[in-house]
């Protein structure tokens, strides 16, 4: 790596923290967002002068814009945007209130949207940069019990696919990271559940998922530090992918969905093509 400045949202724990520590260990600089002021000293002590803590809430547009501005004021540029901040919410679609759904989208979609819009003027002026969209297998395919969360992540994914084409001419690259299940606080402290829990769903996949995800803490198959190392390789790649699965479980989920889609297309392609206008008689 060569003199890169990373702007990473959500560096208090999990993959965001692992990425920040890995980047700093490589001798680079990190501006990381936190929610609590009592975490500032510990983060900046990781690498004095190269680790800058920023108090920001990605759902608060003003605080995001201030964090980006402070990063440029401190380091002079931003090379990598790591849109990591987010949290899961468990519950069937019917169990999810409108307020809960909006909160899920505020954090997992609009949070990324706010960061992207705040950072793009900086990256365009530089004519360089790499935007990393932190997604999940639940953003690539809908999981029962994670329906609204999956929808929010999927929205960020598709936005990033469009974004990649919109900003490529400015020298800005985009990669969507589809994360498998990692040993972080996602299945523990940061995981939310809908207020409503309907007995009708108890024996359905959505209901059973409530118990499954809660019992997964400490048993997740993937290592956050190894994810961080993989992300650094992508940032350094001459031709980074638009989509990158992180975890063998993510590879499996993505491959299965692609096979299912191809199967549906092949099976129904005659019906699909039947909607075309018939040729007018001559």
UniProtKB/TrEMBL annotation:
Q: Does the keyword Oxidoreductase apply?
A: yes
Q: SMART domains of this UniProt entry?
A: PKS_KR
Origin: domain of life: Bacteria
Q: Which InterPro entries match?
A: KR_dom (IPR057326), NAD(P)-bd_dom_sf (IPR036291), Sc_DH/Rdtase_CS (IPR020904), SDR_fam (IPR002347), SDR_oxidoreductase (IPR051911)
GO MF, any single term: oxidoreductase activity
Keyword list, A-Z = Oxidoreductase
Q: Which family does it belong to?
A: Belongs to the short-chain dehydrogenases/reductases (SDR) family.
Q: What is this protein called?
A: Short-chain dehydrogenase/reductase
Per the UniProt record, the source organism is Litoreibacter roseus
């Amino acid at each position: 790596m060569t003199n890169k400045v990373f702007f990473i949202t959500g560096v208090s724990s999990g993959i965001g923290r692992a990425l920040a520590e890995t980047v700093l260990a490589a001798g680079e600089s990190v501006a990381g967002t936190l929610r609590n002021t009592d975490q500032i000293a510990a983060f900046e002590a990781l690498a004095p002068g190269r680790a800058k803590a920023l108090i920001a809430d990605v759902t608060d547009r003003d605080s995001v814009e201030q964090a980006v501005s402070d990063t440029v004021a401190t380091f002079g540029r931003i090379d990598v945007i790591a849109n990591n901040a987010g949290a899961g919410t468990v519950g069937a679609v019917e169990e999810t209130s409108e307020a809960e759904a909006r909160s899920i989208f505020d954090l997992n979609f609009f949070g990324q949207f706010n960061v992207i819009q705040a950072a793009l003027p900086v990256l365009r002026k530089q004519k360089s940069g790499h935007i990393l969209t932190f997604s999940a297998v639940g953003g690539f395919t809908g999981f029962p019990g994670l329906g609204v969360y999956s929808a929010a992540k999927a929205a960020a994914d598709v936005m990033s696919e469009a974004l990649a084409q919109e900003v490529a001419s400015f020298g800005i690259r985009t990669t969507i990271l589809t994360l498998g299940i990692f040993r972080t606080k996602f299945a523990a402290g940061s995981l939310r559940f809908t207020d409503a829990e309907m007995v009708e769903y108890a024996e359905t996949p959505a209901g059973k998922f409530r118990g499954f995800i809660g019992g997964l803490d400490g048993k997740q198959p993937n290592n956050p530090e190894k994810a961080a190392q993989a992300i650094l390789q992508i940032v350094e790649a001459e031709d980074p992918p638009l989509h990158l699965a992180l975890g063998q479980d993510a590879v499996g989920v993505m491959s299965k969905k692609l096979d299912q889609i191809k199967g549906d297309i092949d099976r129904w392609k005659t019906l699909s093509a039947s909607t075309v206008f018939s040729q007018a008689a001559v």
